[in-house]
Amino acid sequence: IELEAGQDVIVYAAGEEYDKWQGYKDAVTGETKIGLSYGKLCQSVKPGNIILIADGAISIEVQKILGEKELLGKVINSHKLGQRKNCNLPGVKVDIPVLTEKDIDDLQNFAAKHQMDFVAASFVQSKADVLFIRKVLDGAGGHNVKIISKIENAEGLRNFDEILEVTDGIMVARGDLGMEIPVEKVPLAQK
Questions:
Q1: What is the pLDDT of residues 75-123, one digit of tens each?
Q2: 183 has a pLDDT exceeding 80
Q3: How far apart are CA 20 and CA 49, in angstroms?
Q4: d(C-alpha 25, C-alpha 54), whole Å
Q5: How far apart are CA 33 and CA 143, in angstroms?
Q6: pTM
C-alpha cells in the first residue's frame, strides 16, 4: 500500500486476527485502511501521538479515535507499506504481556526442560515482567536459567533500576529504543 504524506488513513487494531486481516487502498476514492497487530492501540494512544512503522520509515499522527478498534491518522511522510512491519509508539505505555502463550510454552518445555543457561526477554517494561518470567521458569524446574532483560522502549528505560534489581543481565536494543527516545540520547541511556 502506497502511503502519501498528508493523506488520511484509518488504522485498525487487528489484535489476534492480525494474520487474517488485510489492509487496502481504494484506487478510486483513495480511502486507505491499514492494520496493526496491537489490539489495544485505540485505548493506548490519543490524538497527537505518533505511530512509527517499519523502523520509522512511516510516521502517522493520530488525529481521532473512531472506536474501540479504529482510529483516524494522518500520514506524515510518503512511503510504501509492506506486510508485517514493526511498529513503535513513542511515549506510549503499551499494554501487552511480556510473554505470549507460545513464549510460556517455549520457556517451560524448552528452556527449563533443557536447562538453558540464559533466556532473553524482549520488551521488558517493569520488575513485574521479570518476576513473571522467573515464576514461569521456576514452575517448570528452570531455577538456574538466567534472565537477560531487553530494554527496548521508554517504559523499560523509566523502570530500569527496578528491573536491574531482579534480572540477571540487561541488553539495550538501540534500534528500538531510538524509535522511542531521541536518537542522540540512546548512547547515554545504554551506558
A1: 999 888 877 777 888 878 888 889 989 999 999 999 999 999 999 998 8
A2: no
A3: 27
A4: 18
A5: 46
A6: 0.75
Residue 61 has what pLDDT?
95
Give start and end residues of each alpha helix (H) in the chain.
Answer: 41-44, 101-106, 127-139, 154-158, 160-166, 174-180, 186-190
- Write out the three cell numbers for 14: 487487528
d(CA 125, CA 165): 13
| Alpha-carbon dihedral 36, 93, 79, 187, rounded to 10 degrees | -140
Q: In the structure grid, which three cell numbers stand for residue 118, read together?
A: 540464559
**Set of cell numbers at residue 148:** 537477560
Contacts of 190 (CB under 8 A, 6+ apart): 172, 174, 177
